[in-house]
Fold these 3 entries.
Entry 1:
Amino acid sequence: MKTWKGGKAMKIGLCCGAEEAAQARAAGCEYVELNFTKVARQSEEEYAQTARALDQAGLRAEAMNCIIPADFQLYSLGDYSALERYLRQGMARAGALGTQVVVFGSSGARRLPPGVEKKDGWEKLIPVYRLVGGIAAQHGVTIAVEPLNYGEDNAINTLREGLEFMRLVGSPGVRLLADMYHMGLNGEDYGDILPAGEDLRHCHIARPEGRLFPLPGDGYDYAPFFAALREIGYAGRLSIEAGNPGGPECLPACVEYLRALS
């Protein structure tokens, strides 16, 4: 296994449900990335089932995504009390499951209304990220700003925008995510990872064409993405967030391929 910064190796995980954690471990994954909204809104019995499934699989939910559902429209949200209650329950559960990073993309919640300029929208979103980052920090969790492709979001789209936004938030508990799928769809240069340096705390990967598992011979050049990560000494987590192109047998091959690339 290759090691990078500080003698650590990049960890490979899978975005999935807790019921798939055993399959993920069997394929060589070292953690799973769960849906934060689902965990936060589970009944106590459902949450207990999630915890049991992870325990039985021997994996932790070291990462989560989909932090804020679309019923919270963040640009127009004037009263944060319901959002704060939701976040406090969710973060308590995430922390108990071993979560260390939660991804904040949530385009359905953060999308800006028509006619609103991006920088004006940021003025409304920055306090929300500060609130989320503060609550997350109480449970040992870092928030990762996720830039999303132009077809899904109009608030934060490129990695360079994500880095600028993160710095405007100015919270030590709010850092940055690089998602190869979104960068690829946008046509971004993977070299844009370099200015992020140690602010890059989490990564997602999928083949941009079709959002599928990266596999040998699939026709996509993943080398520039990994070269940029290697140059900044990234030794964090890399979650596969993709559809399976050919059945369960593809996951071990994907994990093996990503380890070889890293």
Entry 2:
Amino acid sequence: MYIRKLIKEWFYFLLHPGDVFPDESARAKTGSFIFYLIFICIISTVFSFAVQYLFLQLFKWHIISLPVILKPDYHQVSIVGMVVIAPIVEELLFRLNLRYRSVFISFILTLILYSIFVRIVLGLLPFYYLWESIGNIAIIMVISVFVNLFIRRFNKSLEWFWIKYFRLIFYSSAIIFGFMHLGNYWIPNYTIVLLSPFFLLPFMFAGLNLGYIRLRYGIIFSIVLHAFNNLMPYIFHYNFR
């Protein structure tokens, strides 16, 4: 009965995302998080394999002219990068700002503007050498000053926007998170990109689930779920190959 209640709450949230959750004791919260950790990892893995299998069959049946397959070689991909670094960076970037706090928005805007300015405009390699590190830190500090001035000026309007359009922000975050993983696939011909909304569905689904965990339990818990979710392909690769 309790598990059915948790599944019902999860399903209702995905259809009607919001930032109101039932009060739970520390023990109940731990128990429900462990359930979601197992449940979401299993359902996300099954969904991902089902989508990959579907596109493989479509290729075999000559319905699509090119295969759509994930590119990681698990002998070469760093497990630390995939299970530790990627979850922390991606959760801070995509899920931290789901709950409005001026400091969260400042952090995200600074990170985005820094990435655009340093990597795209200047074409610099951040934090490899001493002078580059000093220069990058100086750029971050300058950007953060202007961002904080902007946030202070429009804080009330931004908070109102976050509350009024929370559902749009939540779904948009999951969709953008999905498209960010387009680079995870081998795409021999870019006409296949037209199908990307379909084969990126598992990543968008993961974005929705991670957003649910982030809002219900906090950003640390969504990082933990993200890490376990990324660990699943390693487990399947080395035990079922």
Entry 3:
Amino acid sequence: MRFVKQIIVASVLLIAAGCVTTFFPDTDETQELLVVEGVVTNQTGVNTIKLSKSQAIGTVSTVNPLKGCIVSISDDLGSTYQLTEISPGNYVTNPLSFQGEIGRTYTLHIKEKINTSLYKSYQSLPMEMKPVPPIDNVYYEKVVLHEKDDEGPLQEGCQIYLDTYDPDNLCRYYRWDYAETWEFWLPYEVDNQVCWISENSDVINIKNTSILSQNNILRYPLNLITNETDKLSVKYSIMVNQYSLNESEYNYWWKLQNITEDVGSLYDVIPSSVIGNVFCVDNQVEPVLGYFSVSAKTSKRIFVRDAFKGLPSLYRTCPSDTVAPGTTIAGLNSTVWIIIAKTIGTPPYYLVLTDRKGCADCTVRGTAMKPEYWDEE
């Protein structure tokens, strides 16, 4: 009994001291595995296949592109199309000679260079390009994030919805991704005062309509824009892409979605258990991560220019000091930026000194080049 008490006391002391030991699960994911990312669509332009090597558990996660591979795509008519490596691990099709067609079946071929005379071969399963209907509508609604109360003012966000419908029931499995762009302004009249930021979605949006009586998707909640950023401060745009999936690819994305949404625990589904459609020809027991997607694609863009309550002011703490016009600014070190801003009263101008370049130059966060489509609304 005394020994048991000693164990209990020791355990309590360890917990109280906050002792944490890093634990790496006992898995076979120590080898570098091939990771395949890429989609072939029916749209004009290049199709990109990204090849990389996975990182072993317990190592720092970094991009490890796979260079020097021979990559090609073949179709069910016997044609083969070579891809070109334009940057480490990024292989693209020639838009002048290749464009995906609905109803065609495509297979990805990869030869990884082991040494000067030896290659390891990988191949995808043949994938048919299913048709996809056009997007009926993309729209937004204001949502209340926080009611006005003693804790603070009213705060509003923007919920993006999507409607789509396939009366011919040719597409039953869908995936969506999107690209966001927004305009923002610095509160000072500087050379680079107005900029734009673009970001791609990093969440999985999928839908299965095979169990529905009608192939009709209404008010699918695609993206919620909160007031934690300045995306809604001036003007916002979202380009939504809709892809057709077959059942096997839908199941692949569904498993990945479970992981990213942290359903259960790490050990419910581990990354290597999400089987894709690419395999090693030379060693078919070798796991290959990722998926070669073949999807028809339709797109739709909307703009949001509206007044939302409770938006943040990201630059309210920018100025660190002000000086009067004509003041000699000498001996400043390279970490101080001078902003010239207009004001009301006398004198009509003042200088603002700040220790953050982003307060004086919007290109620290974005680009001063307006997107070509920005005035299309």
